[in-house]
Amino acid sequence: MLMVLVLKVSAPWASDKVAMPVQLLKIIEGQSEIPLPSHLQKENLEHLQEGCDHTNKYIQGVVTLSYPLTKLRDGTDFFKIVVQDSDNLRSQINSINVLIYGKMAEDCAKIICQGETFIVAGFKVIKLPAAREGGRHDFHLEVSEEAGSAIYIYTKPKTTAASETASVSVAPKYVYTPLNHLKDGTVVNLYGVVKFFKPPYISKGTDYCSIVTLVDPSNVKLTCSLFSGNLDSLPKIYKVGDIVRFHRIKIREYNGQMQGITSGGFASLTFDGTIGAPVVPRTSSRVYTFMDEEQKTVEELRIWAASNISISGSATKLSGVQPMLFFDLTCQLVGKAKVDGSSFLLKVWDGTKCPYPTWKVPVEAKDLEGEKVLLHQLRNLAVDILVYDNHVQLAESLKIGSFLRIYSIHVKQASADNEDVSHMEFHLHGGTCYGRGIGLLPESNPDVKELKEFLESVNLTDSQNMESMCSMDIDSTFGNVTVLTDHQDLSATELKTITNSSAPRQYRIRAKLRTYKPQKLHQSVKLHCSKCNSLQEVPDRDEFDVILHGSASAAPNPELHNTSWYESVTWSTQEQKQREIAIHFVKHDEMLQHPEDTLIMIEGGTLKEIWKLTKRFKCVIPVRSTEDDLELLDLSAPFLLKGNVKYYGCKQCSTPKPMKNLSSIAAEQQPSWEPTEIAQALGIELLQYVFIMKFTLVDETASLNAYLFDHEKFFQIPASEILTNNFLQEKMQMTMNTLCPPGRKLGELPWLECFIKSYNVRGAMENQVYYQIFDTTVAEDVV
DNA sequence: TTAGGTTTGG
User: Matching Pfam families, A to Z (predicted)?
Assistant: First the structure.
């Protein structure tokens, strides 16, 4: 009798789902071949090559020797056998070592006896360091469940003897197929950047399903249907731009296009697609291979994706929702309730306030799960999202307090019969079009970390003060003033009186902010020279990049290295076009200081390198060398980087002085390296970051445009920080939403109090009167 | 098996 055993779990062609590691599939009598899946091809021992994809290949031979089951140092089970190709006994190379790892090793050790016929598919070929001897192969095969190997054993005894030599275990090597080389009917390993995905949802069959569309630098797309009964074994994709590695995905042709589908042994790793983020795989596998080479692949894909994939997406904060649109929300679940059979209520918040009144889904208090006190505290910040149909089951299973990303929420403007003002409704409609669904984010997710930090910073008492400015009862409560001023003694003047008066004068006014410019708040940040009074745009990073490239073409001058006041270090990069970098560390008392106290000057650095250095050192000054001195770069580039801020000098008003002037600051008892002081020493007229905005103010009598020219006082946010700080941008947006809530009629806008002054600007023909807001600060309970 | 990307009802 011939018995055929198939060791499985991850055999790619196995049709059975039983998770038993060893399964008796068939007992065949008098038959010499197992009906192997048609896509498998037999590989001759003589033709083995390292680095090829053997996912669809098998080798067959007789077990001539087996060793006792042992454990490797890391606890992995290890079983080694020698297999001889019985069809080619006269061949020079007819034996090979097969190293079996993990659960498969344990299972094989129980079953395999010498003389049995052994078939393995999905192995890895590893070259041995020593030369071959006596018919032994100079490769060995590595086999494991993780590698997707499958083993077939014929238990019919045959006998041969063979010697064997020790072999060295080498980490397995995978081969990855680019998306433009996929062939129907194969099982491959691949990398890709997520272009589209549906978070896992419960399919109509027995499994979870997740749809993932990948692209890679071949610019070919591949849509994969991934199924698994275990949610954890589907890739943990959180956003478009994430990078995935799939092992053992089956390729099929569907509607004239290649399609990926899970097959036995499918495994995935997911990586954050952000350049510079740690390359840490998200996986449920206990065991996975991940080495320097893989790290490099991920980093390369990140760079490719950065310029080839739009990851702008539709992520929005509640403060930024627009009616009649769809958006993705990262939020925390604070309440949930069953509404009816086909819909379920989720109450969530993200710390920001929706500028529109939002609907409240009526549910009975007893049906609402969540912390009552918190729900009350958050009653004006949390929003109700009604999820339908296929999303209900998943929504029900969510735990209060968990962090979610809800994809493609529909914002619907609606007005009930008994309300004059329309409100916003949030629906997660049934189905999964456009990736509609709910994803559970782990606490380790960087977006969750950021959100948690933000939620903790939200003062719930303050947000209750905003109650008067929000949703339900708009008209009655909007008599309130939301801006504080310094000059409480002045009484308010009507706008008509102001526009009819001559300039210059100062007034206290009470008005509504009908609109403001720019609507994109980051565009309000400019650079101002207090000497020549000029305003300019903040240069973008490309401009800086170009200047850096230009200056890197000249090598640092070694004669300028290591002077009395700085120490220098130089090195060359490994890139194709070698680049020399010099860093000059400014000393204090002839000593180097801690990096966080040190000012450095750098020659030949890239944008990224300089940015990294600013994280570590107190100040960074990009320089280049001339024949006899170091000097600043073109003043279109920042002359100084400190913390998150790039400091610029005025081209008109600056007269750069020798870098050596910095040594006088370095000699101070405790050098503070203040930008103003550095600028002065270097002859730079420091440009100040300012907010420039135009406010259109109205009262019952007239309307006027007043300019806001503000460094920090009005918003209590430094203009210099806003471009690099998301929290502050968020805070500023919320402030503007409070002062000028979008989507409201004039009558529904809040009243503001502020100070304005009028002034004359001489035109060619006549004087023009302008107005500027001054000495005004947004009240703390608004911010 | 399930889905096979392309939104809108409650």
Answer: POT1, POT1_C_insert, POT1PC
Residues of chain A short of pLDDT 50, as ranges, are 1-34, 132-133, 157-172, 462-480
Inside any domain, residue A173: no
Separation in Å: B5 C1' and A225 CA: 10
pLDDT at A157: 40
| A343 CB contact with strand B at below 7 Å | yes
- Give A620: exposed, middle or buried? Use CB within 10 Å, 0-12, 13-18, 19+: buried
Grouping H, G, I as helix, E, B as strand and the rest as coil, residue A557 is coil
Comparing every residue's Cα with the C1' atom of nucleotide B6, the nearest one is A434
Residue with minimal CA–C1' distance to B3 is: A225
Residue A464 covered by a domain:
no
Residues A266 and A391 in one domain: no
In the prediction, which pLDDT does A154 show? 66
- Verify that A555 and A646 share a domain, yes or no: yes
- Rounded CA separation A686/A255 (Å): 63
- Torsion angle of C-alpha atoms A170, A172, A175, A176, degrees rounded to 10: -130
Average pLDDT for chain A: 83
Q: Which positions 414-433 on chain A have a beta carbon less than 7 angstroms from any atom of strand B? A: 427, 429-433
Based on the fold, state whether residues A541 and A655 are members of the same structural domain.
Answer: yes
* Residue A123 and residue A64 share a domain: yes
Using the CB atom, is residue A341 less than 7 Å from strand B? Answer: no
Q: Which nucleotide is nearest to A210 (CA to C1')?
A: B3
Of chain A residues 435-454, which have a beta carbon within 7 Å of strand B? 435-436
Q: Can you spell out the DSSP letters for A117-167?
A: EEEEES-EEEE-SSPP-TTEEEEEEEEETTTT-EEEEE-------------
User: What CATH number should be reported for the domain holding residue A450?
Assistant: 2.40.50.140
Query: Which nucleotide comes closest to A203 if you measure CA to C1'?
Result: B2
The model's pLDDT over A689-731, given as tens digits with 9 standing for 90+, comes to 999 999 999 999 999 999 999 999 999 899 998 888 777 887 8
The A 235-264 residues near strand B by Cβ under 7 Å are 252, 254-255, 257, 259, 261-262
Task: Select from A308, A328, A349 the last residue of a domain.
Answer: A308
Question: How many domains does chain A contain in total?
Answer: 5
In a domain, residue A5? The reply is no
Q: Which nucleotides of B are covered by protein (CB under 7 A)?
A: 1-10
CA of A430 to C1' of B10 (A): 10
Q: Examine residue A530 and state whether it is found in any structural domain, yes or no.
A: no
Residue A335 shares a structural domain with residue A212: no
Please state, as a whole number, how many other Cβ atoms lie within 10 Å of the Cβ of residue A527: 22
**Domain interval for residue A353:** 318-457
| Contact flag, residue A781 CB and nucleic strand B, below 7 A | no
The DSSP element (H or E) to which A662 belongs, if any, is: helix A662-666
Q: Is A324's CB less than 7 Å from nucleic acid strand B? A: yes
> How far in angstroms lies nucleotide B7's C1' from the CA of residue A521?
29
> Closest nucleotide to residue A209 (Cα to C1')?
B2
Q: Which two tokens stand for residue A559?
A: 């004669």
**pLDDT value at position A405?**
96
Can you tell me the distance from the alpha carbon of A184 to that of A439, in angstroms, rounded to the nearest whole number?
32
Write down which residue in A657, A684, A711 finishes a domain. Answer: A684
Q: How far is the CA of A226 from the C1' of B3 (A)?
A: 9
Residues A520 and A541 reside in one and the same domain: no
Nucleotide nearest to A201 (CA to C1'): B2
For residue A146, what pLDDT is reported? 76
In Å, the largest CA–CA distance within chain A is: 113
pLDDT at A103: 82
User: CA-to-CA distance for A342 and A430, rounded, in angstroms?
Assistant: 9
Within this chain, do residues A69 and A133 fall inside the same structural domain, yes or no?
Answer: yes
My answer on whether A411 and A424 are in the same domain is yes
Regarding beta strands A124-127 and A136-144, do their DSSP bridges make them parallel or antiparallel, or are they unpaired? antiparallel
